[in-house]
Recover the amino acids of this structure.
């Protein structure tokens, strides 16, 4: 296996995730994009773990996944709460901290 | 010695601070008049006692050094004080007369709301004046110089709620400033000259400055210009032409202030400066300027004094005139005689001022009584109740005013005085004695000091330059004028019959002991003070000669601090010395006699003209008709005030209005406001960043990360 | 073979993510995401990370994505209209994204030569008699006085190794993450609760 390929793939997935965060207006899709970014990073970590033979990489992936789960849960709970108040999940309209 | 000097210098400032702080923050303190006044009096009396101690135990000049004040490069000024014959004499005058005036003020200022402030300022003044006369270096002297100027401002404008008084205080300060500027320039030149030539560290101290090597640096044009600048400074402080215009206005302050500051002490600072630097001044070649200024001032002020109706104004112009005499004496190199006249003048002029204060005090009581009786309209006054001038009652009474002049009752105007001797005998006698003293009647103090001045001018005219004889004549004429106007003042005030409304029933009364005791003491000094400076010819008839000459100039082998142009002791320093005795003893006796005659002529003329007080203001009106050409301009101070107003005052005000005000409004204000506006606009622009949309912020993060990573990768 | 598998799964992953990005319906996006997750799981398997691969399916595809779908259905969202409006922000975002990709690829390209040969694997020391000698979790060799050293490939991704590492070296972090999950659970429940007025 060539490490470079995996890293490149990870870079592509990460970029797609970034674009999703920046360009989509549906907050659910934004969250999905964040999850995608996390996955890309996980892929990088596992690739390196295999390359170095170091298991710590996978340990870190383990933890990342846990945190991602927690973050998704809380984030979606917030979305639900906001939706109740504003009846919208359009990011442009969820702007309470306006300057 | 250090302790003793501290005991002289510190009590005034400490008590001033005490009275000031306590009075400011503790209203109950302000009511304790005896405590306040007593402390203030002690603060001057203790230094006087210490000075007497030093005076009678004096052996040799000493310099006491405390700590360094300024140190920068070649300049190093210490707080150092000099105890020598000149400074001790001046200190005795300041603290002695000062103590008497403090005692007087306890009575005079009784009931005033600013009682505590008055004594705080007065003590502060004493402190500054002591710094001035005891200083060992010019900067410390200048510190005192400025300090007395400040206190003069504070005290002239003491009753600051009346705008006239504040204006007078401003005038005093601003005019003095011109002189101070010249003084500073002189100090700069002195510093530069000495440091360039000698190198090392210099603090403009007298020990170094008056040493022969240093004096030699000032032999040429440098010394001339330094002296001229110092003279300008002295004309500011000592009210000579052209900077005398503040002194008559300064009469707006309480009378003790006029007595202490504008008669006995502050105005003599200029003379003290010249006396202290006498070796330098003697060799400057500018003596004739000093003498001319003095003589012209003396005669000019005397002509004005004759025309004045306000008793304090008469005394103010008299002071200017007598100061002119002192400058005249300095201008012929007879510095010690100038100091002698400083001393005698302090005695009789302070007595005259305090006497006038006593009179004014009583006339205020008369005024109150008349207001109560409704005979005159009530009016604003210092420390009195305010009544609107346009109330109907006021307007009514004004229209039928029983006063010989326009406007409200003026307690200082001699036209509504007269015959006060019956009611205020002590004041009258002391005032009378001082009048005779200033007129120069022997054997009172003024006779000896004034005569010595005239004699020295005569002698100088014979030996040095014939032109001085003209100044001698001017001095003689001024003496006659002096006797005339002072006698007139006495007669109009104390003799004749009373001229105020309802004088049959409304009577003034003598002042309390706190005011009359100083009057008596000062009058006594005015009588005997002259014996300190008896003419040298008296030695021929077995009387002692001039003690003050020996004290200040030196005797035997010992050289005093004050130079003398015609004294053998100073022959090496004075360029005018050409051997002893130019004027024979016979001529000296003749001149003495001439002085006495002059005084008698003046007094007699006034007594005759005013019929010993029976003729009052009518005599003045007649004089105006007869001497109209001189009388009218003289009564307007020969146009000096008008001139200054039209040129400098108007110029400054217009300049400010046309140039500085727009500058301030547009450039300064505009700049500041513009800056604020700039900030506001920038903020309003930047505020747009806070959109509240998360994606924008995320974008910002991404951009930032891209930038940093690119930096790391490619740089 | 490996390369072929890699490309297949890579294509699936990228396609899925692009689909997620472009879909108008949130449900469609979620489902595309599931595809991406599964593809990545397969990629893990090609990397011999069996445990992680399985956990990926269980947790990500099985739990998190399900959660997403639950929420989408709870909110009863409609399709969002396609936005073609041009704004400066979008343009910059696009450029930013491209820049990110470029930078990452540059980083990958420049640093690859520092990586060790991925085919090399750490070794364990085995007693020639056949008895196992205690080796460290990373395969560190223990000093052996006698006998020859045999090279035995040690599977770096074995579950056993992961377990040992988790419970020894990373025990503290494990506990913290546990607490974190507890907090998240409570938080999510509280935030999403219906308020009874």
């Amino acid at each position: 296996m060539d490490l470079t390929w995996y890293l490149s793939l990870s870079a592509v997935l990460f970029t797609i995730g970034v674009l999703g965060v920046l360009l989509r207006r549906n907050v659910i899709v934004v969250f999905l994009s964040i999850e995608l970014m996390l996955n890309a990073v996980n892929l990088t970590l596992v690739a390196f773990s295999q390359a170095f033979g170091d298991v710590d990489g996978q340990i870190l992936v383990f933890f990342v996944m846990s945190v991602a789960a927690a973050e998704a849960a809380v984030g979606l709970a917030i979305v639900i709460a906001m939706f109740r108040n504003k009846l919208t999940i359009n990011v442009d309209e969820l702007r309470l901290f306006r300057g | 010695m250090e302790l003793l000097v501290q005991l002289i210098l510190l009590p005034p400032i400490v008590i001033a601070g005490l009275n000031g702080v306590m009075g400011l923050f503790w209203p109950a303190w302000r009511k304790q008049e005896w405590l306040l006044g007593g402390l203030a009096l002690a603060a001057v009396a203790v230094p006087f006692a210490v000075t007497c101690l030093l005076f009678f135990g004096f052996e040799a000049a000493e310099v006491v050094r405390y700590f360094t004040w300024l140190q920068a490069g070649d300049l190093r000024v210490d707080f150092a004080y000099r105890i020598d014959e000149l400074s001790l004499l001046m200190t005795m005058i300041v603290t002695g007369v000062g103590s008497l005036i403090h005692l007087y003020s306890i009575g005079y200022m009784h009931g005033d709301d600013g009682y505590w402030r008055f004594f705080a300022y007065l003590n502060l003044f004493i402190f500054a004046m002591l710094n001035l006369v005891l200083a060992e270096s010019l900067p410390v002297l200048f510190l005192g110089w400025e300090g007395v100027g400040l206190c003069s401002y504070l005290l002239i404008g003491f009753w600051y709620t009346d705008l006239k008084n504040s204006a007078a205080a401003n005038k005093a300060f601003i005019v003095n400033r011109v002189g101070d500027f010249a003084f500073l320039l002189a100090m700069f030149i002195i510093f530069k000259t000495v440091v360039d030539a000698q190198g090392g560290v210099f603090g403009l101290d007298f020990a170094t400055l008056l040493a022969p090597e240093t004096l030699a640096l000032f032999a040429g044009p440098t010394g001339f210009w330094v002296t001229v600048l110092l003279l300008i400074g002295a004309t500011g402080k000592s009210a000579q032409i052209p900077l005398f215009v503040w002194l008559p206005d300064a009469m707006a302050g309480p009378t003790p202030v006029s007595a202490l500051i504008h008669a006995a002490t502050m105005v003599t600072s200029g003379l003290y400066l010249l006396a202290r630097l006498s070796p330098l001044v003697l060799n400057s070649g500018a003596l004739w300027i000093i003498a001319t200024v003095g003589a012209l001032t003396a005669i000019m002020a005397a002509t004005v004094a004759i025309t004045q109706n306000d008793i304090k104004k008469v005394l103010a112009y008299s002071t200017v005139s007598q100061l002119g005499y002192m400058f005249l004496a300095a201008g012929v190199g007879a510095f010690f005689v100038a100091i002698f006249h400083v001393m005698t003048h302090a005695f009789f002029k302070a007595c005259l001022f305090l006497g006038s204060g006593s009179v004014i005090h009583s006339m205020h009581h008369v005024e109150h009584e008349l207001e109560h009786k409704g005979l005159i309209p009530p009016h604003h006054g210092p420390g009195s109740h305010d009544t609107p001038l346009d109330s109907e009652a006021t307007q009514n009474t004004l229209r039928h005013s029983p006063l010989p002049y326009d406007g409200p009752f003026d307690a200082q105007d001699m036209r509504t005085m007269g015959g006060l001797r019956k009611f205020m005998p002590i004041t009258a006698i002391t005032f009378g004695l001082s009048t005779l003293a200033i007129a120069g009647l022997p054997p009172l103090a003024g006779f000896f000091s004034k005569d010595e001045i005239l004699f020295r001018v005569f002698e100088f005219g014979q030996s040095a330059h014939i032109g001085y004889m003209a100044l001698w004549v001017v001095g003689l004429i001024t003496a006659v004028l002096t006797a005339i106007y002072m006698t007139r003042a006495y007669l109009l005030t104390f003799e004749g019959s009373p001229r105020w409304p309802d004088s049959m029933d409304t009577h003034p009364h003598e002042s309390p002991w706190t005011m009359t005791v100083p009057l008596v003491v000062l009058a006594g000094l005015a009588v005997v003070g002259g014996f300190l400076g008896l003419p040298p010819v008296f030695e021929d008839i077995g009387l002692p000669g001039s003690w003050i000459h020996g004290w200040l100039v030196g005797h035997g082998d010992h050289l005093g601090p004050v130079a003398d142009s015609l004294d053998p002791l100073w022959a090496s320093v004075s360029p005018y010395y050409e051997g002893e005795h130019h004027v024979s003893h016979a001529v000296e006796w003749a001149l003495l006699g001439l002085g006495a005659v002059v005084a008698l002529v003046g007094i007699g003329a006034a007594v005759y003209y005013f019929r010993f007080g029976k003729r009052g203001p009518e005599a003045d009106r007649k004089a105006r008709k007869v001497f109209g050409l001189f009388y009218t301009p003289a009564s307007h101070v020969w146009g000096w005030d008008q001139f200054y107003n039209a040129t400098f005052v108007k110029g400054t005000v217009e300049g400010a209005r046309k140039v500085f005000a727009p500058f301030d409004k547009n450039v300064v204000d505009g700049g500041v406001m513009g800056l604020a506006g700039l900030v506001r606009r920038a903020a309003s622009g930047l505020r747009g960043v806070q959109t509240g949309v998360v994606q924008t912020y995320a974008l910002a993060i991404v951009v930032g990360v891209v930038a940093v990573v690119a930096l790391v990768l490619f740089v | 073979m490996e390369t072929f598998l890699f490309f297949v799964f890579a294509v699936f992953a990228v396609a899925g993510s692009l689909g997620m990005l472009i879909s108008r319906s949130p449900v469609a996006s979620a489902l595309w995401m599931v595809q991406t997750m599964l593809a990545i799981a397969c990629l893990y398997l090609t990397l011999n990370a069996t445990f992680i691969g399985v956990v990926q399916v269980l947790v990500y595809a099985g739990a998190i994505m399900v959660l997403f779908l639950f929420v989408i259905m709870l909110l009863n969202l409609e399709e969002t209209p396609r936005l073609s409006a041009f704004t400066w922000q979008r343009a910059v975002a696009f450029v930013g994204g491209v820049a990110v990709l470029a930078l990452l690829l540059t980083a990958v390209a420049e640093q690859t030569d520092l990586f060790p040969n991925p085919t090399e694997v750490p070794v364990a020391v085995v007693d020639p008699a056949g008895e196992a000698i205690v080796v460290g979790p990373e395969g560190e060799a223990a000093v052996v006085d006698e006998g020859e050293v045999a090279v035995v490939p040690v599977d770096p991704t074995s579950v056993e190794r992961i377990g040992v590492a988790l419970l020894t070296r990373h025990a503290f972090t494990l506990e913290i993450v546990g607490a974190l999950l507890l907090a998240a659970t409570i938080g999510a429940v509280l935030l999403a609760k219906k308020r009874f007025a």
Chain A has three helices and no strands. Chain A touches chain C through 69 residues (CB under 8 Å). Chain A has a mean pLDDT of 86.
